[in-house]
Design brief:
single chain; mainly alpha; 6 helices
């Protein structure tokens, strides 16, 4: 496969995942985008903040192209565990989303500048696995972003029932509220039957 085509394919999937992450914030209040909806505190704005750091680290530090002169407190060595998974009251939606968009630009510049077999070092990985190619990092970041987009799908559905892959493409079977209630009831019944058997 021609490298430019392979790189374009990978970048297409990365960009789709990025857009899905941000779309999950649309139309929600400050409270709702910060609400911890799982026992481990998963929340929409925290997912965006985290994945911004993922892109900045993997496409920046890994390839000797650091984004920060002075990393923010949540990104620095010795930061509170999980500090990248939630936004403080002082960190606005605009700041976090803006940082994520800057991370996209920084990552895209790295992707454009290097060949897929260009190498870097992931400083936080064990020594024996530290050396990576741009191809490996792209696949890793796409998988990580899609994983978190899945988290965002569930969190958003818990907030207001909104579902879907992207604006205008919910990728869900057609059905009104009654259909979905019946569907869910049927799944609950089957789960109970299986659990009793």
């Amino acid at each position: 496969m021609i490298e430019s085509k392979a790189k374009a394919d990978l970048l297409h999937y990365l960009r789709a995942a990025r857009e899905a992450m941000l779309w999950k914030l649309d139309g929600l209040s400050e409270y709702d985008i910060r609400r911890p909806l799982t026992p481990t505190g998963t929340n929409l704005l925290g997912l965006v903040k985290h994945i911004a750091g993922v892109e900045l680290g993997y496409f920046g530090d890994t390839f000797g192209r650091p984004f920060f002169d002075e990393p923010p407190a949540w990104y620095a060595d010795g930061a509170e565990p999980g500090a990248d998974m939630w936004a403080t009251a002082d960190e606005s939606r605009e700041q976090i989303v803006g940082l994520y968009r800057q991370a996209w630009q920084h990552a895209d510049a790295t992707i454009a500048a290097l060949s897929l077999d260009g190498t870097g070092q992931v400083p936080w990985w064990p020594e024996e696995r530290r050396e990576v190619t741009l191809h490996r990092v792209l696949v890793h970041v796409i998988a990580d972003t899609q994983r978190h987009a899945g988290h965002a799908d569930i969190v958003r559905e818990l907030i207001d029932g909104a579902v879907g892959m992207a604006e205008g493409n919910d990728n869900m079977p057609p059905g009104d509220q009654s259909w979905w209630e019946n569907y869910r009831s049927r799944l609950e019944r089957v789960a109970r039957e299986a659990g009793d058997g």
